[in-house]
Amino acid sequence: PRAGEAKAESRGVPFGAMIQSDYFRSDAAYRQAFLDHCDMIVPGAELKFDQIRPERDIWRLEPAETLVDFAMDNGRTSRGHTHVWWNSVPPWLEAITDRREGERVLIEHVERVTNHFRGKLLGWDVVNEVIAHDPIQEGPLRRSKWLQLLGPRHIPLAFEATARTDPAARLVVNDYDLEFVGPRFDARREIMLTIVRQMLDANIPVGGVGIQGHLYGDRQIDIDALTRFHKDLDALGVELLVTELDVINRESAPDPASMDALAGKLVGDLMDGIFAWKRPAAVVTWGITDRYTWIPDEMPRYDGEPHRPLPLDRDYRPKAWFEIL
Ligand code: XIL
Q1: CATH: 3.40.1160.10, 3.20.20.220, 3.40.718.10, 3.20.20.80. Which one for 3-324?
Q2: GH10 domain: which residues (predicted)?
Q3: Of all protein residues, whose CA lies closest to atom 6 belonging to ligand 1?
Q4: Are the C-beta atoms of 252 and 309 separated by less than 8 Å?
């Protein structure tokens, strides 16, 4: 069996990874890594609003389609990431101030993109990072362009538009910082549950919650809180997925082996918390090889050494902790 299939069979959890168009084109070993290890792929940028619609009348769907077709042609699946994200608002959309126009743009976008990929994607991260970074300071929701323009109802509006266009897709609320010890993280978990409950009460089909799973070397996973969170979602009939797993370790470490040991501990704690209730619906890492990762651009290591965030090292050798997934 393919490695990815073996994983799904051994633990019953489909494994996927985020893929990037540019390296997909340039690096055959990168393409092969997906075939060797993944049940599922997730285009990392190609389905975001600003990538699809850099201008109001330009619709760029081909880059994502290439990746989705690659998955399908090889008997794999894909997930859609993401219709609504505060950080993928193009300037022309930023300039819109009329509420009705904003609503039309949102619905038109979600319907057209969802329809284009209908039947080809397992589901969508319909909204991404709508919870405030620090809800204790800022209130529950992030002050995004979409919130300013349409208020909290942009969330159910996006879900309804996705659901009516592709009723078979699993519709996910995706967010970060849902797995750690501390009041800010408790608050974020509570808000996620509230968002889900409110939508279900309004008969909006929320199928899943995505824990991004960007883990940090200097944070502790709240194993018990994660188990409770999973249990609470399950009671609502909502699945839990890990959607963007990687390990961000900025602190100095004596050698790669100790970095990998720390990563293994964090990933193990995350999985322990989730599995203590039941299997998650999927686990997806944000990339497959340390060669290509978003982390150094945003959060370089303090000692300047390369990050080791992903299941395969720079030479495509699996880390020991990949066995946990
Ligand atoms: C990142 C991509 O990896 C980058 O290539 C892109 O330029 C910016 O976005 N959380 C998310 C992802 O939900 O969409 C982000 O992806 C990483 C953080």
Answers
A1: 3.20.20.80
A2: 7-325
A3: 45
A4: no
